[in-house]
Structure formats: C-alpha cells, structure tokens
Amino acid sequence: MKDTIILVVTGSVAGYKAAELARNLAGKGLRVKVAMTSAAEKFVTPLTFEALTGGPVLRAGFPQPGEEPMAHINFSRGARLALIAPATADILGKLAHGVADDSVLSMLLACGLPVMAAPAMNTQMYKHPAVQANIALLAERGVEFVGPTSGALACGEEGEGKMEDVETITAAVMKRLGGERDLAGMRVLVTAGGCREPIDPVRYMGNRSSGKMGAAVARMAARRGAQVTLVAAHMETHLPEGVALVRAYTGMEMRDAVGDAFPRCDILVMAAAVTDYRVEHPAGEKVKKKDSMSLDLIRNPDILASVALEKGNRVVAGFAAETEDHLAAGRKKLVAKNLDMIVINDVSRGDIGFGSDFNEATLLTRDGRKMEIARATKDSVANAVLDEAAAIWRANQGRKKPEAAEAS
Ligand code: PMT
What we know:
With 408 residues, the chain is of the alpha/beta class. The protein has two domains: 4-177, Rossmann fold (3-Layer(aba) Sandwich); 187-407, CoaB-like (Rossmann fold, 3-Layer(aba) Sandwich), CATH 3.40.50. It has 13 helices and 20 strands. The protein has helices at 15-27, 46-53, 71-74, 89-96, 103-110, 123-127, 129-140, 166-178, 212-223, 251-261, 303-308, 326-336, 378-396; strands at 4-9, 31-36, 58-59, 81-87, 115-119, 144-145, 149-152, 158-162, 187-192, 197-198, 204-205, 227-232, 244-247, 267-270, 277-279, 297-299, 315-322, 341-346, 358-365, 370-377. The chain has an eight-stranded mixed beta sheet with strand order 13-12-9-14-17-18-19-20, sandwiched between helices. A six-stranded parallel beta sheet has the order 3-2-1-4-5-6, with helices on both faces. α1 runs parallel beside α2 (46-53). The longest helix is centred in the last third of the chain and has 19 residues, at 378-396. The termini are far apart. The structure holds ligand PMT. Ligand PMT binds at residues 209-213, 251, 270-274, 276, 300, 302-304, 318-321, 333, 345, 347, 353-355.
C-alpha cells in the first residue's frame, strides 16, 4: 500500500512550485492529498491539484450543510506526514499559536502527524523576530524545516526566504518517511548545556550555553531511532523526550558522567560548554563583599581528549566554539583531542551559536573532509552532524582499532 502524505499549500507566489512538488512526490510512489488555504487559491487553483493527484482537495472554508462535517478530521486519516509547502509567515504563526480558524488549520492541529515545512517569504519577513520565534517554537515542538534558501525573491529583492527547491524538499520527505529510524540500534551519548563552577554557595563561574544545540542532537538522534543518553549541565531549553537523562553541573561531574557512559556508546557528541577551570577551594559560606577578591583556578581535565584515548571504533565528535581563526582553531582541536570530527561554530555572532535557536557550522573530519552546514535550525544542524557521525560509525564497523591522530 502507498504511503500517504498531506501537502498543505499556502498563499505564496511559490504556490506554482507546489504543483511540481505534488507531481514529484507522487512520482516517488506516494499518495498525495492536498489541502489549500484560501490565500493559496489566489495563486493556484484546487483543480490543478485535483488533476495532478486524482483526489479531492481539502479547502479552507468550513463545510456547507450536506458536505462532510468532519472533513478536517477524516482527511488526514492513514497519512504518515504533513508537509506545508510553501509555508508562509501566516501559517507558521497560526500553527505556532494553535489558531484553527479554517478547515486546513483545524486539520493540521488535529492530524497528530509529523509536520515538515518549507518556508517561502520576503527576506525581511523571514528575519522578523516574530517569525523567527515562531519557527523556533515549532522546531522545538518537532516541526522539521526544509530551507528556505537565499536567492532572487518574487518581490525583486535578493536574500534568504526563497522556498527550497522541489528536489531537495522531495528528498527530505523521502528521508523522513524511509529513514526515520536510520539510527536504530546505535547508542548515542550527547552532552549539552553550560557547566558551572561554584565560587561559594551562591555564586558560580559559568558560560552562555543554553543547551539548545546539545538538546537538538539528542532529540534528533532519539527521533531517528537511536538509544540516547543525554548528559545535561545547566539548560535553558526543554529537555528532549525519549532519552536517558543524567545531570552533571560542574566540569568534574561531567567528566565522571561521560566517563561512566562512554564504554556503552557507539557515538559521542559533545556539545556542552565545559568549564575549562574550576575554583580550587570553593568557600563553604557566602563570601562577604570586599573591594576586590581573587580566585585560585585550576584546570579541569579535557573530557574529550581523555575518553578518545579509549575510543576503539566509537565515533567521537566535538564542537568548537570559536571567535577568531575558526578553521585553524577547530582543526587544532580535532587533532589535539584525537576526534573523528569537529563542528566549528562562530560564537561571536548573535544570530547563531550561544542561546540562539539557529546555528551554522563547518564540519571537519579526521580524514580531511570539510563540510559547510548553512544557517538553519539547531535540529537541522543536529541532523547534519548525526548524518556524518553515523556514516563514520558504519565505515568503522569491521575495521581494526583506528590509530590515534598525530598531534601537531
Ligand atoms: O548551548 P547553546 O546555547 O545551544 O550553544 C551551543 C554551543 C555554542 C555551546 C555549541 O554549539 C558548542 O560550540 N559547544 C562546545 C562549547 C565548547 O566548550 O567549545 P570548546 O571549543 O571550548 O571545546 C571544544 C570541545 O571540547 C567541545 O566539544 C567541548 O565539549 C570539549 N571540552 C571542552 C573542555 C573540557 N574540559 N573538556 C571537553 O571535552
């Protein structure tokens, strides 16, 4: 039996591409059912989609007497996925806030399906904080975004906001449907969040990590079928579901937690911002205010470097948080810590990195490959990282113990 997918078309000039998308998806052996908002009908007609899919289109208006009253519930029955393409700022905002003011939105809220979305809008609209916040909220709830990309937009401007091309969206849908459990059987250990070192019972030394990047890696790995252990320090985000959670707040606690879980993992991804130093003798009582004070700091052990000594065929991946000479600094860490791969991100930018719902990175591998991961939600970046880690793990199977990389 064919897999069914719901294609939700919204009001955008890119609507005409949805017709090609429907044809492409059907060409992959899927049964495509189309739902259209009333704005979508200003750009392309339901008849086009009825002709392409051979089935009725769910239209936005509420059913008239005599029409099926429960269409918004029944339309999606038996489907495996809902894809919104093109996805306007309007539908993303409504979906993020649970608005169900027509049959299409009601169907989206009631369907209980995994949702993918391919945004299409003007650059300024896309970058508007409200739209970015809606995208982040939806991504956190599990909506998978494909694109947008940069290019010439219908409004005559050039920039981010162009709907991803039809082939790429089709490939992402097929991957989600077919490869959903592609990490089944793998044990993935992830670290996330910012470690904090006590100075006294009320003060600490810490960093700006929110834990969003590590949480995204854990969430995506679990969604793709892996058995996931998340070692979490201080987190300012929802903890992902379906993972075994271990709390480790200081650098030494994280060292112990990772050391304990490492022998039982196949892939380690360290996205946590581990404190490089700790206060040698934290005060037992709150330190009284003085004009100045000094702290004796001692170096925390390097967790990655120490577990990588015993890595065998496991894949060990680190993140590099850099503010200058990113590539050179990241490459140095890759070698010095004996990693299989490192994900270098620029933490001096406000629109990615610390605290942001988005990231952009350069991925370097032990065997000299370099991949650019374009700015995208942290879930998308996490998937790219997991794709590479899983590919290395598969390649490692059956190989003898890899040699330690030569330190420079
Ligand atoms: O948490 P978010 O707000 O989402 O932000 C994400 C992030 C910017 C924190 C994340 O993408 C990131 O870059 N994480 C790594 C932060 C870091 O500590 O980078 P580093 O370059 O100092 O360390 C390199 C690697 O060594 C990291 O994988 C780190 O976990 C690891 N490390 C560091 C120190 C230490 N003592 N032991 C370690 O294993």
